[in-house]
Amino acid sequence: MGRGAIRKGRGRSTDAAHVPVLLREALEYLEPERGGTFVDCTLGLGGHARALLAANPTLRLIGIDRDPAAHKWARRRLAAFGRRVLYLQGEFGDATELLRSVGVEKVQGVLADLGVSSLQLDTPERGFSFRLEGPLDMRMGDSGPTAGEIVNRYGEADLVRIFSEYGEERQARRVARAIVAARRKGGISTTSELREVIHRAKRHYGRRRIDPATQVFQALRIEVNRELSGLERLMGQVADLLERDGRLVIISYQSLEDRIVKNTLRDLARGEIDEVTGRSRSETRLLEVLTRKPVRPSEAEVAVNPRARSARLRSARRL
């Protein structure tokens, strides 16, 4: 789910080091004290899920994640809550179908904390981080093409599109050209090899606050996991998933995700437009937006968890 930052604590660390992003704010908007069934569409290591379950002993939680490793960790973390938790493996874009498979049509709360988790980022063999040596994989699940297959097989024009659209990379054409040239010499198989190609391609383009490889790696991860199309599918379902007065919280980490969330919530809150008057028909409004502007982490939270720095929380209520 696309994150320039990370939603969870380090995948190989203890529970004490696992810090869910914007946890207090998420609970405030979701209001777990209302009880009922909630769905965490990005279960990850289970940090937000545990807080929701602990907030109300009658609350039932359904956790969705495509990553088998995430389910393994979350089951350990949430073991004390027993049958109050139901685990579903799959993509959050298929939330409606997944919930119906277990007889659930409506829920009181929907949470999605988007992008890559630290469980994935901090595991070298998953290939998400250019700071750790590993194969170019980047799959959040266990199927589909890897980043390595994309880098070594896609045409230059397709690479330019991916880097431009998903990474907002200004030097997309230069980087794509360098990748195509490098793979003619034997292919690019590791994170460090790709990072070196990117660094060489962007060597003469000024000082930067972030590593030159950041945007390209982000773009590849989004392409591999179909993150934006999955988010669009999820946002198209949330109004129908929520009970009346049900709450929605989405935490995003980069502008492409946040734009999808913001625009969808705006449209659902505005309702249909009358063709004669050009005004919104209030009776067709499905949601009330609770966050006029995105909620950002405090300086204190960022100091404790620097990976939260780019997080943006938006919330809505079902009418």
Q: How would you explain this protein's 3D organization?
A:
This protein is α/β, with parallel strands linked by helices. The chain has 2 domains: 15-119 and 228-318, Vaccinia Virus protein VP39 (Rossmann fold, 3-Layer(aba) Sandwich); 137-225, Orthogonal Bundle (DNA polymerase, domain 1), CATH 1.10.150. Helices cover 39% and strands 13% of the residues. The chain contains 14 helices and 7 strands. The chain has helices at 23-30, 47-55, 68-77, 95-100, 118-121, 147-153, 156-167, 172-183, 191-201, 214-225, 227-235, 238-241, 255-270, 299-304, and strands at residues 37-40, 60-65, 85-89, 107-113, 242-252, 287-289, 312-318. It has a 7-stranded mixed β-sheet, with helices on both faces. The longest helix is centred in the last third of the chain and has 16 residues, at 255-270. It is globular, with a radius of gyration of 20 Å. 48% of the residues are buried.
Q: Which descriptors apply to this entry?
A:
single chain, 319 residues, alpha/beta, Rossmann fold, DNA polymerase, domain 1, 7-stranded mixed β-sheet, disordered N terminus
In short:
By secondary structure, the chain is α/β, with parallel strands linked by helices. The chain has 14 helices and seven strands. Helix 3 (68-77) links the parallel strand 2 (60-65) and strand 3 (85-89).
